[in-house]
Amino acid sequence: MDTISITVTISDRPYKLKVRREDEVIFREAAVKINEQIGNYAQNYAFKDQQDLLSMVALQYAFNALKNEQIIRFRDNELTEKLHALDRTLTI
């Protein structure tokens, strides 16, 4: 596994990471997205400190990930059912 060291900045704090070379761009894009969302929350909502903003961004991304998993499971189940129906039709 080819790893490299990178530094990403989130909420004005640098974080050093060891990542697979092929994942570097994704990690950097993720940090940019997080910082953008922090900025959006800071502009639109009252907050006490950066922790509030980071918590809201984490909640938003966790929700989106869980929702996407739910959609994928539903589609996989639906596809499996249709494939079984097609298989039954073809074997008759």
Question: Overview of this structure, please?
Answer:
There is one protein chain. This protein is an alpha+beta fold and 92 residues long. It has one domain. Helix content is 68%, strand content 17%. It is built from two helices and two strands. A hairpin with a 2-residue loop joins strand 1 and strand 2 (13-20). The radius of gyration is 20 Å and the shape is elongated. The model has no long low-confidence stretch (mean pLDDT 95).
Keywords:
two-stranded antiparallel sheet; alpha+beta; 2 helices; 92 residues
Roughly how much helix do the residues carry, as a percent range?
A: 55-70%
The strand count comes to 2
Q: How many domains?
A: 1
User: Cα-atom Rg, whole angstroms?
Assistant: 20 Å
Task: Please indicate the percent range of residues in DSSP E strands (runs of 2 or more).
Answer: 15-25%
N-to-C span: 49 Å
Order of helices and strands: EEHH
Instruction: Tell me, rounded to a whole number, the average pLDDT.
Output: 95
Major beta sheet, specifics?
2 strands, antiparallel
Low-confidence stretches: none
For this entry, what is the oligomeric state of its chains?
A: single chain
**Count of helical regions:** 2
Shape: elongated
Strand order of the largest sheet: 1-2
- In terms of structural class, how would the helical and strand content be classed? alpha+beta
